[in-house]
User: What shape does this take?
Amino acid sequence: MKTISVNGNSLKWEQNMTINVIIGKMNYTFKMLVVKVNGELIKKTEYDMIIIPAAADVRIIHLISGG
Amino acid sequence: MLKDEFFSKHDPGIISALRSAVVGIAGAGGLGSSVAVSLARAGIGKLIIADFDKIEPSNLNRQQYFINQIGMPKVIALLENLKQINPFSDYQMHEIKLDEKNIPIIFKDVDILVEAFDKAEMKEMLIEIWLSHFPQKPIITGLGVAGYGKNELIHTKKIDNLYICGDEQTELQEGISPMAPRVGIVANMQANLVLELLLKDV
Assistant: This one.
């Protein structure tokens, strides 16, 4: 089975997997995010466009208010 | 003479690296004003600081301002305070609301950028702009600073050139407000990390 890593957790990889698909599978509900895949920034406008390859290292950082 | 005395407690080996450093601070509220004070005391050569806000009485619960500065633009008041602490560094202040157009211009010469905004959507915008324009330059964000206690949850994390300081979970909400100790801890973790990154090859 091919997998990807999402914030250190293993997730089954599927064809045509986008960031929005991954967010749905992880049940992430937060809206303010920074996403990096294999060290590269994925912009918000690309969450539905870029296809994530198998074995990718996906980091989804939840931005929260306060400062 | 006073300048030499100011630096007399600094390790001589690190002074030139500190003096040649340029650090950006985006926001001059709870995080930003405290980061600025610590980095001024550390003797960073130049700080570039931007904020559009004016000081309100409620800011004094955690921000590095005083009663007689209420109503002043934060960057003007902060400049006064930094000069009182360390008049030997260079401070470039911008009274402006940061956006995707002006961020790459205002902060283009910094070695490291400190993200010190309050609102999550501003943090998101700044980090995305920074990583797309300057992926080779570190950015240090403060995430999860509200409330009090829970020292053990506060940490630092590195994701390539994006560094996170905070607990990454305590959000502002009804009943959880930002307070001086926890905001100050995270601000000083950001400032401490700035020094570590600047001095890692010294």
User: Anything to note?
Assistant: The CA atoms of residues 35 and 60 of chain A lie 5 Å apart. Residues 19-25 of chain A form the longest helix (7 residues).
